[in-house]
Amino acid sequence: MSDTDSTEGLPATPPMAGLDVERLDSLRDLDPGDTTYIDRAIGNFQVNSAAAVEAIREAIAADDVATVKARAHKIAGSALNLGVPRAGEVARSVEIAADTGSVAAAVPLVDELDAAMAEGRALLLAYQATYAG
């Protein structure tokens, strides 16, 4: 049996506060016995969510509404796709704030976004630990 076969038939993950484990398990099990896809997605989120928050901060400083909106939209989609609802909801709030045509409404949300993304990264690593040997 190869290393990738060791995950075949993984049971459902018990509920984890702050995560949509059903969503994550469905991504994990896309290719039974191989967690490469979910592992890559989690790894990408680890890097991209931190970079997105920094890009949003820079865009706010530059009064660049379009970039704030685009980066918030992209990271919201990633968070929600990966079952991290709080991070996705806060990112959506930033996106909606940018819909006003000004970065001013997004300013008070950035620290909350940063915290939600950090929490999401930690939760995803905890989820990954449930199946990683």
Structural write-up:
The protein has 133 residues and is mostly helical. The chain has a domain at 37-129. Helix content is 64%, strand content 0%. The protein has helices spanning 21-28, 36-61, 65-81, 85-98, 110-129. Helix 2 (36-61) runs antiparallel to helix 3, helix 3 runs antiparallel to helix 4 and helix 4 runs antiparallel to helix 5 (110-129). The radius of gyration is 16 Å and the shape is elongated.
Integer-rounded radius of gyration = 16 Å
DSSP summary, beta strand count: 0
Unreliable segments of 5+ consecutive residues? 1-7
- State the share of residues found in helices, binned by percent: 55-70%
Continuous helix count? 5
Give a short account of the largest sheet: none
In short:
The protein is an all-alpha fold. It has helices at 21-28, 36-61, 65-81, 85-98, 110-129. The two termini are 15 Å apart.
Set out the fold topology.
Layout: H1 21-28, H2 36-61, H3 65-81, H4 85-98, H5 110-129
Helix pairs in contact: 2-3, 2-5, 3-4, 4-5
Features:
elongated; disordered N terminus; mainly alpha; 5 helices; 133 residues
